[in-house]
């Protein structure tokens, strides 16, 4: 297994750790710890692709595993946000529907001996999703500091509502890019759907 693929696997290994800290409010500064781990996982996404292209280490395994690791990383974060009451299920459903549709196209292509790599829209989609998760984690950490009295500004309930709204806006922006990227991806690879048996 080459270095880019090892970084992809590392990203998968980090997922349970940020999920653990994200869902453990009894641990002080748990949002900050989850944010740091998520940031490390996100950086491996940038790094593995960069190394693979620069050193000509692009593999079929990487083309499949890298987007899969991205999906698991984002799904895990959004599922935790739903459990914590930081968002509703609709955005996760939109993102999941897009990913299942794109994965289906990839499987059809693979059955025909073709490996379809992610396009630029897929990368934009992933970046907007990562940014949305970052923003929510940062806002929730600030809110945690506010509730602990470490920093004070405004009424706690007002701050909570505004932070929730800001997080929702970021998630819906990522959902729009997710839908657009999915439509473009399916249109670009419609030949595989038309010839599927």
Give a short overview.
The protein is mainly alpha-helical and 197 residues long. It contains 7 helices and no strands. The chain has helices spanning 3-22, 30-54, 60-83, 90-111, 120-147, 156-188, 190-194.
Describe the structure.
With 197 residues, the protein is an all-alpha fold. The protein has a single domain, classed as Four Helix Bundle (Hemerythrin (Met), subunit A). It contains seven helices and no strands. The chain has helices at 3-22, 30-54, 60-83, 90-111, 120-147, 156-188, 190-194. Helix 2 runs antiparallel to helix 5, helix 3 runs antiparallel to helix 4 (90-111) and helix 5 packs antiparallel against helix 6 (156-188). The protein is globular and about 60 Å long. The two termini are 34 Å apart. The model has no long low-confidence stretch (mean pLDDT 89).
